[in-house]
Amino acid sequence: MKFAGKVAVITGSGRKQGLGEAIARRLSEEGATVVIADIGGSRDAATPDAMIGAEAEMREIAASMPGAASTFSCDVRDPDQVRALAAHAVAAHGSLDIWVNNAGIGYIMKPLGEVSPEDWRAVIDVNLTGAWFGLQAAAEVMIAQGRGGRIVNIASQAAKSGFMHAQAYTASKHGLVGLVRSASIELGAHGITVNNVCPNHVTTGLGKWQNEHFAAVQGISVEEYLRNMASRIPLGRPGLPEDTANAVAFLCSAEAAYITGESMNVSGGEEPH
Ligand SMILES: NC(=O)c1ccc[n+]([C@@H]2O[C@H](COP(=O)([O-])OP(=O)(O)OC[C@H]3O[C@@H](n4cnc5c(N)ncnc54)[C@H](O)[C@@H]3O)[C@@H](O)[C@H]2O)c1
C-alpha cells in the first residue's frame, strides 16, 4: 500500500480499457484515493461522443476501483476547469499528491496536406496545452501544501520518433519532453518530480483506432498489422495498459524520488532512445 494517504488525479481516465483507467486502478490498488477525471460529454467536433469518456462511464469506473474514488468532469483545454479539478481533489479528499496528465486525442490522422488548422489545434490543445494547464494547476496546489508531489504525463513513443499521418500528435508528444525538462528545474526545489511515460502502441484506447487506421493504409488486416508490430518489438508483443500503469506507479513512488525531467520508454525495447 505504497500510496496509502495519497490523493491522485488522473485526467482522461473515464474510458473503459484506456490507459487512464489502468493507471487509476494501479494507484488505487496500492492505497491511493483516486479522482477519475474526464471530459464527461462531447463538447464540440474535436471531441466526438464515440471517442471520449462520458459521465456515466466515469462513474462506473470510479465504482469499480478497489479504494476510495470520486469523479470530476473537466475539459483539460480550459485552465479554469483544470484548476477546479485540482481544488476538487483537496476539497473532497484532503490533499493532492499525484497528478497524471493522461487525457489525449489521437484520432485525427491525415496526410500532411489534408490537416486543417482546426485539426492541428484540436490535438495540440488537448495533448500539450492541456498537460501544461494540468502541470500548472497541480504544481500550484502541491507547492502550497509544502510536501512535494508527483506529476506524470502520458506521452508516447511519438515523443521520440515520427509517425506518418500524425504530425500534430507527434509534435504534441515531443513537446511534452521539453515541458518536463523545463518544469522539473523549477519544481525540484519543492520536492515535486515531473516525468513522462512513453508507451508504444497499446491495442486498447486510442491505440486501437490508430492500429485500424494504419492497417487500412497498408491494405492489411488489423491482425496482420499487429503481428508485424509484434515482430519488431524485442519483447515480442504490443504494450498493455498495465505496462504503462506500472511505470506510472514506479515514478509516483518513494523509490523514484531522485528521478525527474525524464521521458521513460515503455515499449518492449521498440523505442531505443
Ligand atoms: N493507446 C496507445 O497505444 C497509446 C500509446 C501511447 C500513448 N498513449 C497516450 O495515452 C493517453 C491515453 O490514451 P488511451 O489510449 O487510453 O485512449 P483513450 O481514448 O481511452 O483515452 C483518452 C482519454 O482522454 C479523454 N479526453 C479527450 N479529450 C479531452 C479533453 N478535452 N478533456 C479531458 N479529457 C479528454 C477522453 O475522453 C479519453 O478518456 C493519451 O494521452 C495517449 O496519447 C496511448
Summarize the structure.
It contains eight helices and seven strands. It has helices spanning 19-29, 55-63, 79-93, 117-145, 167-187, 206-218, 222-232, 241-252; strands spanning 7-10, 33-38, 69-73, 98-101, 149-154, 192-199, 263-266.
Beta-strand segment tally: 7
Binned, the helix content reads 40-55%
Q: What overall form do the CA principal axes indicate?
A: globular
Q: Which CATH architecture would you pick?
A: 3-Layer(aba) Sandwich
Order of helices and strands: EHEHEHEHEHEHHHE
CATH homologous superfamily grouping: NAD(P)-binding Rossmann-like Domain
* Alpha plus pi helix count: 8
How is the largest sheet built, in terms of strand order? 3-2-1-4-5-6-7
The stretches of 5 or more residues where confidence is low (pLDDT under 50) are: none
Strand content: 5-15%
CATH topology: Rossmann fold
State the major sheet. Answer: 7 strands, parallel
List of distinct ligands in this structure: nicotinamide-adenine-dinucleotide
Instruction: Report the mean per-residue pLDDT as an integer.
Output: 96
Distance between the termini: 32 Å
User: What structural class do you assign from the helix and strand content?
Assistant: alpha/beta
